């Protein structure tokens, strides 16, 4: 995993509903293929939303960890 190139990191711990997905989507649009966007969210429902969004858009979750009550997810742009 040390070869991951994180294009942008988003702290969305204070956001919910569509906010984190909108931020993630915008960052992924700007990223190049094989670059990653890291997003940190505060609740399990938003974590699930990120995973579903990644699958629907053809991107890949490469890291999904719970750390100190928050969820750190890194999504790689595939196409």
UniProtKB/TrEMBL annotation:
Instruction: Quote any Pfam family the record assigns.
Output: TusA
Q: Where does the UPF0033 domain lie? A: 9-77
Q: Which Gene3D superfamilies does the entry mention?
A: TusA-like domain
According to the record, the segments passing through the membrane are: none
InterPro entries noted in UniProt? TusA-like, TusA-like_sf
Query: What family does the entry list?
Result: Belongs to the sulfur carrier protein TusA family.
Question: What's this protein's name?
Answer: Response regulator SirA
- Native source organism of the sequence: Candidatus Marsarchaeota G2 archaeon ECH_B_2
């Amino acid at each position: 995993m040390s070869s991951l190139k994180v294009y942008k990191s988003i702290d969305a711990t204070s956001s919910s509903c569509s906010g984190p997905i909108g931020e993630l989507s915008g960052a992924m649009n700007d990223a190049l293929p094989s670059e990653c966007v890291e997003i940190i969210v505060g609740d399990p429902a938003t974590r699930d939303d990120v995973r579903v969004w990644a699958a629907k858009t053809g991107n890949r979750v490469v890291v999904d960890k719970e750390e100190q009550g928050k969820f750190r997810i890194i999504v790689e742009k595939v196409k």
